[in-house]
Design a protein that fits this description.
alpha+beta; Calcium-transporting ATPase, cytoplasmic transduction domain A; Rossmann fold; 4 domains; seven-stranded antiparallel beta sheet; seven-stranded mixed beta sheet; about 45% helix; elongated
Length: about 525
């Protein structure tokens, strides 16, 4: 891993204070188990991934998010904290959820190591060339010795020129030309909160021609809010929310959270539903008392055999046309209300979409939301295409269809919900911040959930390719120029290389390749 990652990991291999019944006990971090509560004081490194159960303070998360300003963490909201972060001020007690090699920082370090070992096509070609090159050098050295010893009758020159050929030949420059560039690029990415999980990602990005984006949590900030409740007939808002929250409280869908929060904020009581079912891409269903409660899109309502009036259909289209998500709430055979849920568009989204199009990508949107809402985002972002009302599995099938038509897809979505689509894309990118990052998702993980990481990857991929070609080109020019000179080709013109000079030239060649890789410019 990079030096910064290694330093963070080293800091975790110290001791920590663990809260026990008998008070505070200091023990090695390696002995801490999930469920233990550790004490962290100002200026200390958090030793585990966990949640704050006591105290409050500002935590520096720049190692993961790239944001320079510390974030406030409080016990009242059970805020998550990550191993390797620094408590800049305050006092925290943290209940460990992941320790040791299971922490996010340890996973990042291991992923960086693995990414360095996965070589792109240029590196594999260079490796093959190195294999042949070694035998070619041996053949040239043998021929050189034979010529100067036998043909010219000067064995001393034969030995000298053969040694010069062996010393000046530099297969190692070819061998490190591409892996070192990949290593530097992977570390630069990690410092920009972009976790590269495969070394050939840079090459695959440059061969892609389309970017397909998820909506919720990718193009939007992922914090939906309940904006309005359109009740139908004699239904009351409090009654609708109470029944709905009894079902939604069991759901992990992003749209469930603002509904439950609305109930809590308004002090509306709700009970647990007696039955519960989540229908992917459609909604939820449950039984509250003797009533069958459902919440979701038109597809779910139609499957339940519930009639929707023309006025309600128009309302649903109108909500969608404003970029918001309509949620239809039903009880038994009637519609109780239509909820209007909105999620703010990421501020950087328009500029990122425009930049991707300027880079030659076609940019599209794939969402499970209704057509009107998806078309709204397509219109304001000036996207090339869009697809709507997709279930998680539908996105994977959509990508396969687009690939069959010649598209090479970079898909950007949620690391958990969009896992099938991420896995089949040419490059799968998971938007996941902090502890919620999915370890299994995709080729790239954007830790800070900032869309600027997409254009950063495109720019960095171009720099990586340029650096690799420069290094390989230099290695070829160096060997093609100096090996003939070392063999004595220009000796009769008074130009030759001694073994000492050849060794120095070989070292300088290696240094040139290494320096070129290490001097990779920063991209934004």
């Amino acid at each position: 891993a990079s030096k910064a990652l290694e330093e963070l990991l080293t800091s975790l291999r110290s001791r920590a204070r663990v809260v026990s019944d008998g008070g505070i006990v200091e023990k090695p971090v390696s002995e801490i188990k999930p469920g233990d509560v550790v004490e962290v004081r100002a200026g200390e490194v958090v030793p585990v991934d966990g949640v704050v159960v006591e105290g409050s303070g500002y935590v520096d998360e720049s190692s993961f998010t790239g944001e320079p300003l510390p974030r406030l963490k409080r016990d009242s909201s059970r805020d998550p904290v990550l191993a390797g972060c620094i408590l800049t001020s305050g006092y925290l007690r943290v209940r460990a959820t992941r320790v040791g090699d299971d922490t996010l920082i340890a996973y990042i370090a291991e992923t960086v190591r693995e990414a360095e070992s996965l070589r792109p096509r240029l590196a594999r070609i260079a490796d093959k060339i190195v294999g042949y090159f070694t035998w070619v050098v041996i053949a040239i050295a043998t021929t050189t010795f034979t010529y100067w010893s036998v043909v010219t009758g000067d064995p001393l020159k034969g030995v000298m020129f053969m040694a010069a050929v062996l010393a000046v030949a530099c297969p190692c420059a070819l061998g490190i030309a591409t892996p070192l560039v990949i290593s530097v690029a992977v570390h630069k990415s990690s410092r920009n909160s972009v976790l590269i999980k495969a070394g050939d990602v840079f090459e695959r990005i440059l061969t892609s021609n389309a970017v397909l984006l998820d909506k919720t949590g990718t193009l939007t900030v992922g914090k939906p809010t309940l904006l309005n409740i359109h009740v139908v007939g004699s239904a009351r808002v409090e009654e609708v929310l109470s029944l709905l929250c009894s079902v939604e409280s069991k759901s992990e869908h992003p749209l469930s959270r603002p509904i439950v929060e609305a109930c809590i904020e308004r002090g509306i009581r709700f009970s647990d539903s007696e039955e519960y079912a989540h229908i992917p891409g459609e909604g939820v269903f449950g039984v509250v008392g003797n009533r069958k409660i459902a919440a979701g899109n038109l597809s779910l309502v139609e499957k339940l055999g519930i009639q929707v009036s023309k006025e309600l259909e128009d309302l649903i289209v109108e909500i969608g046309s404003r970029g918001r998500t309509p949620v239809i709430v039903t009880s038994d055979t009637e519609v109780l209300a239509v909820l209007e849920i909105g999620d703010e568009l990421r501020s950087e989204a328009p500029a990122i979409v425009e930049e991707l199009k300027q880079q030659g990508f076609r940019v599209g949107l794939a969402s499970g939301d209704v057509e009107a809402s998806v078309k709204y985002f397509e219109r304001i972002l000036k996207l090339d295409f869009s697809f709507w009302e997709l279930r998680p599995g539908d996105k994977a099938n959509l990508i396969r269809d687009l690939q069959g038509k010649g598209f090479k897809i970079v898909f950007v979505g949620d690391g958990v919900n969009d896992a099938p689509a991420i896995s089949v894309a040419n490059v799968g990118v998971a938007m996941g911040g902090g502890a919620d990052v999915s370890k299994e998702a995709g080729d790239v993980v954007i830790l800070n959930s900032n869309l600027k990481a997409i254009t950063f990857l495109v720019k960095l991929s171009k720099v990586v390719k340029k650096k690799m070609l420069q290094n390989i080109g230099w290695a070829f020019i160096y060997n093609a120029t100096l090996i003939p000179v070392a063999a004595g080709l220009l000796y009769h013109y008074g130009i030759f290389i001694t073994p000492e000079m050849a060794a120095a030239a070989m070292i300088l060649s290696d240094v040139s390749v290494i320096s070129n890789a290490l001097l990779m410019p920063d991209v934004t």
